[in-house]
Amino acid sequence: MAKGLYVSETAGMSIIKRGQRNRLSETAVRLILILCALVAVATTIGIVASLLFESLRFFQKVPLTDFLFGLEWSPQTALRADQVGSSGAFGAVPLIAGTLLISAIAMLVATPLGLMSAIYLAEYASAKTRNTIKPLLELLAGIPTVVYGFFAALIVAPMLRNGGESMGFEISSESALAAGITMGMMIIPFISSLSDDVINAVPQSLRDASYGLGATQAETIKQVILPAATPGIAGSLLLATSRAIGETMIVVMAAGLAAKLTANPLEAVTTVTVQIVTLLTGDQEFDSAKTLSAFALGLLLFVITLILNVIALRIVDRYKEQYD
Amino acid sequence: MTEITGILKTAGSKRHRAEARFRAYGLIAIAVSLSFLLIMIGSIITRGSGAFHQTFVQIDVELPAEKLDPEGTGDPDVLRKARYGKLLKAALRDRFPAVKSRSDKKALYKLLSSNAEYTIRDQVVADPLLVGGTHAFWVRASSEVDQYMKGKIDSSLEESRRRINDKQLAWIAELQDAGKIEKRFNTQFFTGGDSREPEQAGIMGAVAGSAYTLLICFVLSFPVGVLAAVYLEEFSAKGRLNRFIEVNINNLAAVPSIVYGLLGLAIFLNVFNLPRSTPLVGGMVLALMTLPTIIIASRSSLRAVPPSIREAAYGLGASKVQTTFHHVVPLAMPGMLTGSIIGMAQALGETAPLLMIGMVAFIVDIPGGVTEAATALPVQIFLWADSPERGFMEKTSAAILVLLGFLIIMNLVAVYLRRRLEIRW
Amino acid sequence: MTGTNSATPILKVENGQVFYGDKQAITNVHVDIIPNAVTAFIGPSGCGKSTLLRCFNRMNDVIPICRVEGSFKLADQDIYDPRVDVVSLRQRIGMVFQKPNPFPKSIFDNVAYGPKIHGLAASKADMHTIVESSLTRAGLWDEVKDRLDQPGTGLSGGQQQRLCIARAIAVQPKVILMDEPCSALDPIATATIETLIDELCENYTIIIVTHSMQQAARVSQKTAFFHLGELVEFGATEQIFSAPVDERTQNYITGRIG
Known about the structure:
The structure holds three protein chains of three kinds. In chain B, 63% of the residues lie in helices and 5% in strands. By secondary structure, chain B is mainly alpha-helical. The longest helix of chain B has 35 residues, at 14-48. The two termini of chain B are 53 Å apart. Chain C has one domain (3-253): Rossmann fold (3-Layer(aba) Sandwich), CATH 3.40.50. A six-stranded mixed β-sheet of chain C has the order 6-7-8-3-9-10, with helices on both faces. In chain C, a hairpin with a 2-residue loop joins strand 1 and strand 2 (23-33).
């Protein structure tokens, strides 16, 4: 109020007009800002709409149940035989199984390594060690996935095959193991930096209490810090899993193309993302079930990762609030 | 009170062993993780460093005027049309007169790259005075010879199991003795476009494609990301809309990148009919993908600006817009830029969404604009990694090294900005 | 454990010095702590009383820039001897912190944690006995006996602090260090804790850091007054509060330094 009085007393009407113009441009600016923020919402809508629209066209040709529960995936033959849907060649189960197998291997590699690295960095390492090792680990996260794919296909896979041969195993050159191990390497920094944050959020007073009782550091970590950090760690593992499921390049380059329902990590399996890439990088006709099935797979991938992310983000948020 | 004893360490007690073991697990985990990094980078460097050099062969080529420019015009168009391949083959036969049989001749021609004739052509066109004499030219060797010279082909293998036969080995040895074969810095790798022949393939096309793509990506995502962050931090009421947008952004940040590619394919290409395989569409897709990163970084950097700055501006009678854009945003700019560079670095390494919008085509020409068909550096790596020719293995590794080089530079710039410009409150 | 050998100090500090980097936090302190009594450390904020307290169970070890010099002895054994096992040391010298810090576990597990890591209970029944007797001594048993499996963080502030005391005595320490144990509590909870301290000193040696002179006067037998990292005056509580020798002590207890 005082400001308004001062203005009108000294400068009269013209100032008030300018004030109104200001208000108008303020509204315009505000509008632009809102529009920019809504781009994020529009992106989500765009993703959902495009996936849903194309998927619905697909489900007109192939029943949803065949897609979700079918045990056989062979889009190529289905196209040629011109009997789309009736043959059940669009069953996504082997793809989901392959995706889960590779992701599980990746998590098996990355969880102990990432978690133990985080524990060491958060609890044992001196500030100096921490400041050197953390960026080095994060370097692993900064390397493009296509590089991991190359490494998996041309270095890890032949190494495993030769190693297997010398021990009498037969390991496929596109084995789930090679893709999984490499993907695990990629995910280590993801788990270690998220867990590091989570472990650091555990209040110092709990450590003090445990040390004050004469607990060793390992006892304190195992029995006080990790239990307190469990929800946060679980959240970060879920995020990492979602990342593994959605990862494309490593599996495109190192995993197989043929859909096979197996739990043997030495065999070649294919994944949802591999099939999307394979289906959409050839010639495309936009009404063939073959092309449209890629969008149905995309929708499936989006829904699975979204569910994992929502759960994980909620767990992590709640965990952080607890210690704020 | 002497009853209190035993506070001294008892060597090898169970609890201390457990402690040491646990600590060792941590160290081992870090060592294993870092050795992954080391093995990966190391194996790529050892495989890729060869690509920076290329084997060249010196050969004397006769350039008879009657075959190149019978009328003596010196017209570049005439010179360009002449058939240098024949001259080169003749020169090879002259160099190795003992070669008689048809198949041997074929093997002989295979010593040189298929584009060797163009090297001669370009030099002749540039200097028409060469016509009429015999001159020594350094031309590119074929990929097999190059690989052999780099020690990638084991000559002790059985002849049928290697890509280079015994006679070819003998010719190479002869050239070596005469000092007519040598490795030189491979400028073609940095300046050339893609090729089916490994020895001719370069990354410039892919680098240019990536540059255009990132340009579009930055131009779109930086302003939108910063303004969205300004809205969320400074303008919006902390209500439901804000919360909704925030959840949206957090979830978008974790959507698999390939899904963005599907979005680009379905909407940008099929609905808006934008040109396929172009940096324009690639940049748009990557912009949507990096937007969450930029918004999240910009918000935290806005949040770091202390409220006292805003209060000071308001106290002087500045409006909300003035306060924000005159005071708060400039102070937050270094942090926003840092976040954006990191976002751009992620976008530079991204492959999967570009595959979806057709940036995987085999493109020889270096793109000249954002609406020309192009490929990008990581996609080029993917394409080369898929090629069966042995020579592409080192090209792929070398392209990875170039990509990593760009990423390191971008991250160093980000670190520099953070250290130097970011104001610590 | 009766008062007969109370003249023999259980803790003895000679020429104690503590540095944080280049800054000296404690200068030249000599203190003898007599067993089975409450010794109060008082003084204005930043005078080093908490720092000195944390020297006794080497909680300062976790701060990299902190350096301790001089002789700190527990029953004639050098606490800072490199051969000393801090784990065993802290089993004998327990600690209660400023803010109640129960683990995010059940009430039972909070108390059982110490005995478990030190292997003090041979069986489940043993553990139960220890937990019950610790909670009883901490005056909390009747309040929590029906909900031992509920989280310790769900208790009120005063109850949480008594739980922390129970947790500390469950490992059968000789000495209990208390770092402003009532500063986060309301007056009623404070009174309960003070009564508890009074009872506990029959069996334990207690050192309490407090910024409340009334509390020091109420609970302690001996009082040490610190100022700017120096031990200014140390003696029987009655004497410190009624007839302080040093002028600075006089000024502090009459409210002129604060």
